[in-house]
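Final paragraph of the annual report: two paired records, presented back to back.
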Amino acid sequence: MASLSVSLVSAEQEVWSGEASLVVARTVIGEIGFMAGHEPVLAILAEGEVRITREDGTKVIANAQDGFLSMADNEVTIVAGSAALIA
């Protein structure tokens, strides 16, 4: 099964990066989820949780706000003004 290459960064640092099977984030028009093969997307990030499901099923959860996210070629990049892991 194909996976996603995920990078979550804030203005200060890289918060998390790795391989995942699912990424869910809040945008200004609502939540969006990404799996491998998703169409390209560029969206404005809203304040809220970013939920990342690793390939082994474990979850990474971060609070993020003020930025954007992009999805293309099985790569998800989330650039936030501020972001921090909570789980």
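The closing record of the year follows.
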Amino acid sequence: MNRKEIKERRQFLLNNLLKGLFYLVLLVGVFFLLRHFSTEDQRYAWFGSIYDNVVLVVGLFVLSEIFFGIIPPEVFMLWSLETGMIGPYFFSIGILASISYGAGFLNFNMGRWVRDKDWINRTRFPRLKKYMGLFEKFGGYLVVVASMTPLPFSAISLLSGMGGLVPRSYLLLSLFRILRYFLYALILFGVENL
């Protein structure tokens, strides 16, 4: 790999990390506003029926992680921090991270099963075409970036399987997903205790 490619990879990772930090700051800001400008009773009235239903929240999380990360995982991290309904905070983050890692591997295997790259051209999801182009350009490095940033981890996992990434490589590279969960959880825990 030449210097230009290394620089391009670093810039790609940095740009996406900055997007992730921006979204995290935005979410933490909304969390702070809700926390300081509403009462606990008001928050419970808005979110109570959802907040208290562990099966519903975890079910939504699983579906979101399988179907291209529709809901940012930080929302579920905040839920876990606020409620403690699936155990102590960092234990619950481990559960959420494991679910995300497993959902990614499920999508990776679906991609290996499909293997039809032309399918992407026939779908109505132009972003999939864009991400397939990025996978062809960056290969497994894209899995690392998607694991750590707001890029749709599930979609990248699917495309990685379609693109022929070796399962062992995928499993190793996607371990960064677990790292992301614990880093973000640590940040949210720190903000909670300010």
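The chain has one domain: 3-192. This concludes the annual technical report; the extension proposal builds directly on these records.
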